[in-house]
Amino acid sequence: MTPPLDETTVLQTLRQVIDPELGCNIVDLGLIYDIAITGAAVAVTMTLTTPGCPMSESIRLGVQNALLNLEGVADAEVTVVWEPPWNPAMMTDLGRAHTGVRNF
After folding, report:
1. How many angstroms separate the CA atoms of 80 and 59, rounded?
2. 2-58 pLDDT per residue, tens
3. Which DSSP helix (H) or strand (E) runs through 18?
4. Residue range of the domain that includes 75
5. Which CATH number do you get for residue 18?
6. Contact 14, 44 (CB under 8 A)
7. pTM score of the predicted model
């Protein structure tokens, strides 16, 4: 039986995508801004730690591939935005602990 496609399942899947510069997953870094699920289609709005991130396309494609490999997903759209700008306060406690960033 296929588990229901919901935001929790999508977030768990996106934890597999690691920012190669920081060595932490994009969910705990606070890079995911929105998830929209419509049937078998998932749309993710996200950001990166800096607009000049040299790995931006690689991370975006990693998110798209992770979603497309999720059972029940037939289409995945990933949009990278710069507003609001990312800042370390968006990180989860796990993300801060992993990267050594102090609490805000």
Report:
1. 10
2. 667 999 999 999 999 999 989 999 999 999 999 999 999 999 999 999 998 888 999
3. strand 18-19
4. 7-89
5. 3.30.300.130
6. yes
7. 0.92
